[in-house]
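I am still getting used to backbone structure tokens and would like to learn alongside you. Label the sequence line and the structure token line clearly, so we can match residues to local backbone shapes. Go ahead whenever you are ready, and we will take it from there:
>
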Amino acid sequence: MTVNYTRIGVVGAGAMGRGIAQIAAQAGSEVLLLDSFAGAAERGREALMAQWNKLHEKGKIDAAARDAQIARVKAVDSVGALAQCDLVIEAVVEDLEVKRKLFRELETVVAPTATLATNTSSLSVTAIAAGLAHPQRVAGFHFFNPVPLMKVVEVVAGFKTSADVCKQLAGYAVQMGHSAVQAQDTPGFIVNHAGRGYGTEALRIVGEGVADFATIDRILKEQAGFRLGPFELMDLTALDVSHPVMESIYHQYYEEPRFRPSVITAQRLAAGVLGRKTNEGFYRYNDGVMQQPAEPVPPAVAAMPSVWVSPRAARRADLLRLVNTLGAQIDSGATAAPTSLILVAPLGFDVTTVAAVERLDATRTVGIDMLIDDAATKRRVLATNPATRRDIRDAAHALFARDGKAVSVIRDSGGFVTQRVIGTIVNIAADMCQQRVCSPADLETAVQLGLGYPRGPLAMGNLYGPTNMLEVLFNLQTVYGDPRYRPSPWLRRRGAIGLSLLHEEE
């Protein structure tokens, strides 16, 4: 296979630089590895040799491939040694002035036709290229760690970047075995921008005292289908990485409410409670094993009251069937009998608001999240309101746990947990499309490969219904009065006329 770039330079021999060098050599490019620290480039090359030897021992590559890949990587000790490269990728420290200085030096060395790429995750490509004689050849080429396993790379066009440069880089990414997604030069590009909703909304829910960290993680994994809960994820990435990214994107977007960080992570960062790397984060870790708090067991209830389901409940027919299947007597009156457990299933509203608007007895009212089909979940989520009696809460918990499915009971919250988090994720993604940060297709690919979500955010919105997402967001705005929840025009318009959230205008 002929590669787009036969000889490339990689500046920075840390984990990212080594990963880029590895997949470039595997694609067939000659790689010159450079680092400003004496001996680091050679150590990087030795680490790559060890990696390829390990792959050979496991039978993943044959001896000929191993030897060829090792031969393609050379350690060099000066920028001048990169003169014959047709592509140079920098993977140095995330400091604008350091990167600009490096690119100014590279520009005096490489040919005018050579491409200069930055692996920055948070800095402006336009700012990095500013002041260069040929800014049109500078682009973002953002990989994710570990590079060989994270099969997506963001190709980012600066303000003056040539379209041909982006096309060449995208093609090269494919030759390296990755999916290339194209993004405009905006804060967070695609993945770090789209990922703002998951953690920040979960932190907001905790901050309201709705539920603890472990409960929220359980809900989002077992009801919504995420692989890791947001607090497990923050422990894994470490708060000294994730909190500065939250603050950076928030400030780069001039305090956009959708990206508002939380004092919770700021305090924990200040205290040095960073996550797995410090053996303490949102969870404690013993020998690297997360210590998860025990979950409350369903209460024993002597007598189950009859159950009255609000006529306005989401998926009311499904909810009635579920209650019947679980063996409760259904109160079919026009209004609830004086002793019945009252069930509501709002979208976006909290239980308190529904009880007040529908003039229900709040002491007997419990909410259940019915956004997602019950058959598709491993966990049910109930919410009380400030007036809910303990015996009513216990009866609801016991009822919905009768078939062995896990149940979480949380305090009152507009949109429970799943509705709030999914609504926020979908809305941010929709607004990225509205801003033309990237195409809907590239957004879906980037999020699934870069964040590991069960599906892309626009597909998520389609699955649960654009009109449902709109209802959740409009009602969250009503409950909280926060512009954070204002629906994106992309979502509002497509939801209003029944279009897929993936639909692009002709």
Notes: The two ends are 36 Å apart (CA to CA). The CA atoms of residues 257 and 484 lie 5 Å apart. The chain has a mean pLDDT of 96. Residues 193-291 form a domain with the N-(1-d-carboxylethyl)-l-norvaline Dehydrogenase; domain 2 fold (CATH 1.10.1040.50).
